[in-house]
């Protein structure tokens, strides 16, 4: 088994650790602001997770503006400022190569809502209710 590809396609400990470092550096850069971009002004942006490629040269940041408003505009603006964010991250974390950053909208909150709706559906609740015990036959003895 190689260092890059682990059993089951799970990310390595190093990939997770570097992803978390990139997430913190990116969150700090977005909090600090200073981009002179109307699409980013007034938005609080959450960086929920960063997924690293096995060679640590590419980082996919999953982001969501507070309230989910204008997510596509925010992602386009972040893509526009990608080089500045990459250089900022390179200064903050010590890696051989600064990872190329891609931005995607985080849909995990939508998935949580969908799962909640499924769990609260009448069909699922019916399966979770204790069933009445069936009447037992009287023993003739």
Describe the 3D structure.
The protein has 141 residues and is of the alpha+beta class. The protein has one domain: GMP Synthetase, Chain A, domain 3. It contains 5 helices and 3 strands. It has a 3-stranded mixed sheet with strand order 1-2-3, with helices on one face. A hairpin with a 5-residue loop joins strand 1 and strand 2. It starts with 12 loop residues before the first helix and ends in a 13-residue tail after the last helix. The model has no long low-confidence stretch (mean pLDDT 81).
In short:
The chain is α+β, with helices and mostly antiparallel strands and 141 residues long. It has five helices and three strands; from the N terminus they run αββααβαα. A three-stranded mixed β-sheet has the order 1-2-3, covered by helices on one side.
Strand order of the largest sheet: 1-2-3
How many separate domains?
1
Q: CATH homologous superfamily?
A: K homology (KH) domain
Helicity, as a percent range: 40-55%
| Distance between the ends | 66 Å
Under the CATH scheme, the architecture is 2-Layer Sandwich
The whole-number mean of residue pLDDT values reads 81
User: How many H/I helical runs?
Assistant: 5
Q: Report the CATH C-level class.
A: Alpha Beta
The CATH topology: GMP Synthetase, Chain A, domain 3
Portion in strands: 15-25%
